[in-house]
Amino acid sequence: MGHLVGKDVFRELGGKIDGMEMRAPWNDRLRAILAELYMVEEAEIVIRMPNGLSTFDEVARATGAETSALRRLLDGMTTKGLVIDLWVQGEYHYAPSPMVIGIFEFTMMRMGPDVKSREWARLFHEYMAVDGSFLAANLGRGERFSFIRALPHEEAIEDAEHVEILDHEKASALLAGTDRFSVGLCSCRHEKLHLGEKRCAAPLESCTQFGLAADFMIRNRLAREVCRFEMEDLFARSREMGLVLAADNVQKNMKFVCHCCGCCCSVLLAVSRYGYPNAIMTSNTIAVIEEDACTGCLKCATACPIDAIAMISVENPQAKRENAPQVNTSVCLGCGVCALKCPTRACRLAGRAQRVIHPETTFERVILQSLEKGTLQNQIFANPKSIGEKFTRAFVGAFLNLPPVKKALLGDTLRSRFLQAMKEGAKRQGKGWVLEM
To answer: pLDDT class for 4, splitting at 50, 70, 90?
Structure first.
């Protein structure tokens, strides 16, 4: 297939990636990343690919590429994590990787003699942290539907009689309900290692995947397969080390859990360093302190990875301690790391006054994220080659991005009906299987 004559192929590719569920605003730093990771021929394929999961034949029709060359390019990009290939419905389905979760994570999880981790770490850091536009584009408007959520440590929760914990909020239920597991390098920790900013003792190999995602990671050598017992040991290790469990923000078929520290995790740093509390959705629990049992030992405040607990002076001269912890309820994740470190069990996780609603499936999460980011039209009309879809995409996008429309569809009153309509549309397109992913 011919090159995109007269155009900057990487600028075109940047526009494609920016139109996904996580925005990737264009600048020279993004161009440097794309030019480093993609060959020109690979970029051309991704630009022409449908946005959603598509069979090989659907990708071939959309791109116009000769099948053997297309197969070679797709195989190369899936190995690098630039394209996702999932085995569903008896065949592989392909989709371009978004910036997050996708290009950044899979690139920094790669291993082998040909990887340039130090250079890649510098490029991603300059674009995603130093520049500031990436965080602002994805979090700067008070977005509510993050790709990731805090998963509470079950041992930190008050008596089950007082707190209702659903299965999707339990690591134990996730492990019991999954039949394939993998673990790979933590992309954030690996990045910080090469930047000279890793301050913790947490191991590099601590990004865990399950089910369909584990199959993708193992097959493309981005992670190694582990058994259930080793996975249980990994979770126990994270509990002992006081790491935050940051999970796929879905209720069904959870695909990953990150084991995060406050010094390396880009999501936690977005909260603590850059002031975006909406970078991660909270759990349905929140840290509470029982004053009578608290000794003021500071361990909960020291353990909190986002500095959500401050020690304040106790003015009562009759008090047995000089300082008392105060939880900032506006940013507390409900992760339970603080409670794990409390020697008197004065700090525990209790149920939030208002339940947090997490998307039921990946389909719902992507739809809600895309609507918030102003890119839903690219999910609905996914074929970039179709002239008719191009016009409709622009028209529908302008409508969906009207503030009153977006606010209404994301609101509690209409959200369920809107999602149901999107599900019916997927079924009419013959892709009802994506609803269970």
So the answer is: very low
DSSP line for 188-215: HHHHHHHHT---S---SEEEEEEHHHHH
Locus of tokens 């493309």: 220
Q: Please tell me the predicted confidence (pLDDT) of residue 5.
A: 47
Domains of the chain with CATH codes: 9-100 (1.10.10.10), 139-279 (no CATH), 285-351 (3.30.70.20), 364-436 (no CATH)
Is the Cβ–Cβ distance between 147 and 369 less than 8 Å? Answer: yes
Average pLDDT over residues 205-227: 97
Strands (DSSP E) along 13-98, which ranges?
A: 54-55, 83-88, 91-96
Q: Are strands 256-260 and 244-248 parallel, antiparallel or unpaired?
A: antiparallel
Residue 246 tokens, joined: 């940051």
Residue 167 CA: distances (Å) to CA of 154, 160, 174: 11, 13, 8
CA 373 to chain centre: 15
Nearest-10 Cα torsion for 186, 188, 191, 196 = -110
As given in the structure block, the two tokens for residue 187 are 């992309």
Residue-wise DSSP of 271-340: HHTT--GGGSB--SEEEEE-GGG----SHHHHH-TT--EEEEE---TT-S-SEEEEE-TTT-----HHHH
Give CA–CA dist 183/218, Å, rounded: 9
Q: What is the pLDDT of residue 1?
A: 46
Which residue type occupies 181? F
Q: Say whether the peptide bond before residue 280 is cis (omega within 30 degrees of 0).
A: no
* Lookup: tokens for 327: 């939880």
* Cα R_g (the chain), whole angstroms: 22
Neighbours of 320 (CB within 10 A): 10
How far apart are alpha carbons 116 and 194 in whole angstroms?
10
